[in-house]
Amino acid sequence: MQLGMIGLGRMGANLVRRLRQAGHECVVYDVNADAVAMLAAEGATPADSLEDFAAKLTTPRAAWVMVPAGLTGDTVFKLADLFESGDIIIDGGNSYYRDDIHRAKALSEKGIHYVDVGTSGGVFGLERGFCLMIGGEPDVVKHLEPLFATIAPGVDAAPRTPGRSGAPSQAELGYLHCGPVGAGHFVKMIHNGIEYGMMAAFAEGLGVLNNADIGRAAAAGHDAETAPLADPQYYQYDFDIPAITEVWRRGSVVASWLLDLTAVALVEDPELGSFGGRVSDSGEGRWTVLAAVEEGVPAHVLTASLYERFSSRGESLYADKILSAMRKQFGGHHEKPST
Amino acid sequence: MQLGMIGLGRMGANLVRRLRQAGHECVVYDVNADAVAMLAAEGATPADSLEDFAAKLTTPRAAWVMVPAGLTGDTVFKLADLFESGDIIIDGGNSYYRDDIHRAKALSEKGIHYVDVGTSGGVFGLERGFCLMIGGEPDVVKHLEPLFATIAPGVDAAPRTPGRSGAPSQAELGYLHCGPVGAGHFVKMIHNGIEYGMMAAFAEGLGVLNNADIGRAAAAGHDAETAPLADPQYYQYDFDIPAITEVWRRGSVVASWLLDLTAVALVEDPELGSFGGRVSDSGEGRWTVLAAVEEGVPAHVLTASLYERFSSRGESLYADKILSAMRKQFGGHHEKPST
Amino acid sequence: MQLGMIGLGRMGANLVRRLRQAGHECVVYDVNADAVAMLAAEGATPADSLEDFAAKLTTPRAAWVMVPAGLTGDTVFKLADLFESGDIIIDGGNSYYRDDIHRAKALSEKGIHYVDVGTSGGVFGLERGFCLMIGGEPDVVKHLEPLFATIAPGVDAAPRTPGRSGAPSQAELGYLHCGPVGAGHFVKMIHNGIEYGMMAAFAEGLGVLNNADIGRAAAAGHDAETAPLADPQYYQYDFDIPAITEVWRRGSVVASWLLDLTAVALVEDPELGSFGGRVSDSGEGRWTVLAAVEEGVPAHVLTASLYERFSSRGESLYADKILSAMRKQFGGHHEKPST
Amino acid sequence: MQLGMIGLGRMGANLVRRLRQAGHECVVYDVNADAVAMLAAEGATPADSLEDFAAKLTTPRAAWVMVPAGLTGDTVFKLADLFESGDIIIDGGNSYYRDDIHRAKALSEKGIHYVDVGTSGGVFGLERGFCLMIGGEPDVVKHLEPLFATIAPGVDAAPRTPGRSGAPSQAELGYLHCGPVGAGHFVKMIHNGIEYGMMAAFAEGLGVLNNADIGRAAAAGHDAETAPLADPQYYQYDFDIPAITEVWRRGSVVASWLLDLTAVALVEDPELGSFGGRVSDSGEGRWTVLAAVEEGVPAHVLTASLYERFSSRGESLYADKILSAMRKQFGGHHEKPST
């Protein structure tokens, strides 16, 4: 079937390619004309404006918006101005699910349907397929199902779960209609929250391995500020962390795609010298914490993993100065200089 | 080659089976004679006492101890009394790596070698192979390598990491000599610490999904103790969590063996009615935190995942009572009854 | 000067009493006629309806709303319907500062001024005075200053901070105009967030003291699920926690009003037998976390203290069941029964 | 009565002064002869060697050791060599309570008594008195009680707790015999753990206040890495944090000595420009976490406050690099440069 794609960055372009490989027709648009030209050269139908894009789509139109998070709302509403009752706008980006609810309500006044799709798979999705978490009206989602089934990895991407048999369910094919509007991005939000937590688990654990040679350091001088390491003999290990991440890939409980990627990264850059350690966060981790708080459900791990990213960017500096200021007041402690 | 196995529980028995399938000879012993008889029926050489066990092993002996954590030390030392210089004792259980250091030192006085092996793979190891993390003297570990290579999953258990080519390294075969005595259990300790963190990430995230229908609950009465949910319209989702864990298995960033297992568990018991939510912890998670603290490395996520297990068993009750007592004092707040 | 008070619960009634003791005139209203009658008996001017309340106030009217959080918005808007341009409505409850911004904007269309006041002091405020954090237009706040100065504790309530001299500042008198509308409740929100963190610090620390006799427990049986306590000789203390909280009150770094209250609570109920350990949370702790997340500032401690309250009410149960379900899958671990 | 003091740093010197003001006799020694001379000039009896120190003390000797943590053990054992059966050695420093247990056992073989005293009060102790937490044999502690009563602040240092009447208890006088050897430092350890948590609560809360103007920052460009701040209108506050800490000192629930000190620090240096934010930790915080873990008691807040100090010193760098490396692998995300 036909799909329009707005936003031809890494993800959008790969979605188009995956759809076209399966015989779907794609109309493509991007503010960057070069991106349009590249996909046109691969066989997609180019559009040179939103108007042109709308004109080249057959009604009922289906358009997938895949633009940076801050631009999604504007793009959706501009498109809605050009679309008609019965058309469908799909937000495949990393939108806040609450924005989905607001947008769907606004679009419904014109009879336009809104579908939110959380998309996971990163730069590997073209080859592996993308995991799709979908929210929207049941019949609209059903109408789009041929597209979702193409984009998703398919049942063979993983061994079937014992207890599941017969024709594979949607979920086993790699896409899932999760509920009404917003449900797709809600599930994607939690997915990313979990991703933050898993990443932090690996990062912290490897951090402890990395410091396991601390007992070899020359004994620090005795002062009232620092307790000497009681038992340096227990911290004499010089671990080969690239090898350790590799060995865990086979047979261990922590085997995972994130571990696979960590092993790749450590082959490419064993000392991680190309990284400064400033870790971005892009919305879903924050929204996951907001949801946990509003629901009254504890999420120590997911939240800590978010806060560690804040700290990595220096955002705890004021608090740390307050601590040093207090210590100076009650104990006369002066800060130890960095060594 | 020949290996003696002491402790024929789930793990020990499967190690023996995996070794024997590859043609190694196994002498087996357990305090439970039935366990010995079962493996003897499968072709292993039975021993009916530690003395008999020692006598049936060819020098230089190699014995693998796979008994509950609290019994490992006693077993190792009893065996050492029966062994001779040049023999090897392998601790394949979940020992604290510091105990390895102490034991190895004690055994070295008699010329007996000590090797510590962290073993991951759970109940699936017989089929998948076990991931082995090994500490000990280089030549001793090298001597045992045929056994380790058999027990480990082998290179085909996972796609090779891009950048790794030629003959597979130890790590790619699924076992790794991590360093001197204790190094194997140190790495296993961190592995389990990471496992705790990953498990908590999934558990917390699914917990937030599970409560996403909170906006449907009848509006709670207004009182000074509880803030009403500001926006119930955002919490109207009734998610199919078994399907969500299934869809994440294909193409998503959180794909992992732990996710696979969660999906299985949710097929078996979709409402988790067979669980009470009292979560055990068995040592490595605690030791990981101790190491982080002694090394001065932050481990928010790994620690929180451990503490959540403590809380699941009611261990925060006293602290919670203190909080209620304080609230009563300063605000006259009385505890709200459970509803 | 004159002030109207709506809401004569614990806090509202004590505010009226404190104002009247200093000679201010108070018009009082509550849906509970008994509460009105009680304060009328003490000399306040009673009102038997909102209309009566508005009528008895001299223009420009000043009315303080002190009702449960969930009712504040309605009360403010009903009152605004009866008030005129130039009148002032003060929200002294625990409102979300964002609601202040919305309400002030709505009221400004009618020329009515809105002032938000965060009030701390609990049940002791009548005697000690209340700490006031104020947001609103500068001249309006200035107009109300005689009331704030009366309600606040005054400079003598604490020794002056070294470096502050001359006429006491507002802050030293115990009230502070913190900024534009919402600023008062923002500062109160953070105040309560800090309060949660301090309370949790005490609760957790006392929890560790309380369990310091764990080494005396009969050694648990050896099994694969639980690591035995390595060094029971270090956990043989039977601490007198009421005495410990008392001794800390004099000369120690943790001396604080919360410690004083904890000491009182432990004199009243040394074993805390009257508490079940279900700890409420009333909004500010949650909003503090939301602010930290939106600002991108780490708040590990404040957030953990909130989540511990959630856990105390059983809200981690689903996550805990997930953990047990995972453990059963990979390790065949069955839950240990509660003992 | 007579007391010997070894270690005439800030704390040791002030203890001597406080004892002498009350008429006790003090023999003093320090490796720094100037420190000895200064206290001799104030009337203490100087010693120029440990031997001289031991000789000038009347049997049964009582000596208080107040040296840096790393030197305490050596000092205690050197002193024990010079002392006789019946003499008493008091460790008033910040020792690990387990070291107390070991030392007391070693000294008991010679008949020397060991008393551990946790001392809180910081640089203000000379004037305010020190809060003393004491472990040791009952009759030995009783023998030393005149010294403890002098050092402690006395009952008038705080209003009596309602419910306590009659002759003040030890705890009300500001010192407490907490239990057998090690009990004093155990309680001091937890005290400091709580102190860490309280400090972090203030630091984090003030950090959120400090960033409450984030909505004023020029809107960041739209990119896929960062979610734009959804509602900048809610973060327009420019708070006067010195004034806020001042106003909380009177009447609020967070009133505390740590708040008093924070207010002082912010008068001295309102922008905290003299601090770099590298926060030391000196042992007790770490030991508190170890105790929580070994006891199986959750301590989210106390642990997070410790880890934040580690992070303030850059100890999360490796973990943060791992996170960036993972993000690059799965998402092609490159680190954003510091701006």
Automatic annotation (TrEMBL), chains A, B, C, D:
Keywords: Gluconate utilization, Oxidoreductase. It comes from the Bacteria. The keyword Oxidoreductase applies. One of its GO terms (biological process) is pentose-phosphate shunt. Residues 184-339 form the 6-phosphogluconate dehydrogenase C-terminal domain. One of its GO terms (molecular function) is NADP binding. InterPro entries: 6-PGluconate_DH-like_C_sf (IPR008927), 6DGDH_YqeC (IPR004849), 6PGD_dom2 (IPR013328), 6PGDH_C (IPR006114), 6PGDH_NADP-bd (IPR006115), NAD(P)-bd_dom_sf (IPR036291), Pgluconate_DH (IPR006183). SMART domains: 6PGD. The keyword Oxidoreductase applies. Belongs to the 6-phosphogluconate dehydrogenase family. This is Decarboxylating 6-phosphogluconate dehydrogenase.
